[in-house]
């Protein structure tokens, strides 16, 4: 039987689709999912395939991953990310992945639990001290936290004093989406506001990266350990046969680490805290578990991650509804067949976790916030690729274990000790950029949940593998 051509919207619908691509990309993905599990959008010579079934996702992301390189959106991000781990391909990507992989081994991540817990404890104390002083942007606060964790766990470097990193990356994402929508047809020299912000951000990131590399390299020369991901990047750059190329790749890898190392976890924490504020009964269950496991105001240790089972389910459900990596774009290198549908060489292919996680054949009442979906008894009957918040296949997120530990620890501590209330009128609208951001931040009022002992450090040696 010859491959079929997927259904697609009629030609008259294309203007509306292009408008949604520019202003409401999630609506475009929902429209495609409502039409079929395999959709072909033809825009002149350009072909865009959207696949929305677990077995289709498995084929594109895992079984035939070699045929699908990074695609629309990420290609445009190379203006800043260059050939970093997020955008590189082939042997370069494999070499980069092998180089940083040891920094993400489970034993090493477990050993970082103390640093993650301390940063979370500092956030709670900071919020507690500001309680009652009016709304606080929790998204900004957790972004600062995730940068702090990134610096301590993967870079052996303090990122305090580099507060502009998060704002610079917002400008980078805005430019990447602008380039995607405009198909790169707008000259970069035009003095548009988006492009001016992008150029400033690129200069700021270059200056920041150069300063961080200089500091870390000097400490390595002085005898500091070199097991963190940042140090391993510096060593690889020094070993490159072409010093100029080595320096360029180091810059691009570090920019990627700074972005991917904080953005997705900050997004997850923002959505988790918003959902808990909207669902007090779930918040109360998390608080009860946190106070049962993390007694006497103590900070979590590595072993506590396996005891905070309900909190983990809450974070997993937040990532189902609002996956930080909301879209997985690819470009077919050669012709292929996905679920009996033909895919042309050179076509753009999209797998969208945001819609896959809402597929009515896979999830009962998919728009409802229900952490119980991730009870082990219910997970066992679900297709493996029905839930892919960290991607899948060879390009599965290398930092997923660290990100989960960070999100669970912060959620548990914040909920144990504080009451957060969303400012009236704030809707929490999803803004699909490179990650699934929350438009307008997350303004919340903070007050202590009750009197608890101040968080104390874990016992010496805790958190080791």
From TrEMBL:
One of its GO terms (molecular function) is iron ion binding. Heme binds at residue 397. Keywords: Heme, Iron, Metal-binding, Monooxygenase, Oxidoreductase. The keyword Oxidoreductase applies. Belongs to the cytochrome P450 family. SUPFAM superfamilies: Cytochrome P450 (SSF48264). Its cofactor is heme. PANTHER family: BIFUNCTIONAL ALBAFLAVENONE MONOOXYGENASE_TERPENE SYNTHASE (PTHR24291:SF50), CYTOCHROME P450 FAMILY 4 (PTHR24291). This is Cytochrome P450.
